[in-house]
Amino acid sequence: MSEDVSRREFLKLATTALAVGPTVLASATMHAAESATPVVTNSGVVRIGSVSTAVEGGLMPSLVKSFNSQNVVQAVFTLDDDPYQPEKVGKYDLIISHFGHRDTEEFIFDKRLGLWPRTVFSNQICLIGPTSDPAKVRGMTDLVQAFRKIAATKSPYVLNKIKGVTYLTEILWEATGRPAKGSWFIDSPGAGKKDAIAIAAEHKAYVFWGLTPFLREKKVAHGALMPLVTDDPLLQRIMVSVVVDPEHVPGVNMDGASRFQEYLLTPSTQARILTTHYAGHKQAIWAPAGRNNAGAVLPL
Prior knowledge:
Elements: H1 2-19, H2 21-35, E1 45-50, H3 52-55, H4 59-70, E2 74-79, E3 94-98, H5 104-110, E4 118-130, H6 143-152, E5 157-158, H7 163-175, E6 185-186, H8 194-203, E7 206-210, H9 211-218, E8 225-229, E9 236-243, H10 254-265, H11 267-274, E10 287-288
Parallel strand pairs: 1-2, 1-3, 5-6, 5-7
Antiparallel strand pairs: 3-9, 4-7, 4-8, 4-9, 4-10
């Protein structure tokens, strides 16, 4: 008998629960939300993770200082060449990186952790070569013609094994009619970044690398090399700002991140980017890229 009563009581309770289910569920959800530890967002600070390229030469420090002088919200930035790593999710409100950073696409589209990237500025790689400049390319603004002269004079050229540089070299090789790659074309396995520069210095050769890292390294080594071609648009590398998506990452200061992103796109800031120079180097290092965004997002 007691078993039958228990069964009847159970059915009664189950029927009641079904009748008031939405209310019970809403109440339980509210209770869980209230009892859970809330994510605390410091609305007075916007946290920025920036790859080293934008920090070298003082660009990001200069922009952050200017932003902080004009706003109650204060920006703080961290130099981080891997800002999209999973263990760093929740550390930043906004990320500055190259558009072609190896993890940007996965972060935004696969993991849905970031909003649409906004182009803000570009840095540049450059054609570096010996001060003797045997191919006579110094100051040229047409990179295809410069590469053609290097190939025609068989002046040593070192392939910097960075994917983007290898890709650019292939474009130039195709554009110049596929010149024969003889002994002048130095393709050493594993020769990337600093190693490629060291080989170029040894062989008095031409090589591509980022202008800011080269200028940094030049302070301690490779005095026999110098930037020779810098003005061709092919040498520009677009950089973007990515606001971390608050719907998927708790604690993001969305308002602060959006405000800093808008600041980067204002005409006055874009002009400031153009006139920010690397110490001891008179030529512009960065170029404004705000106008590459959709017109609706440009602050006018």
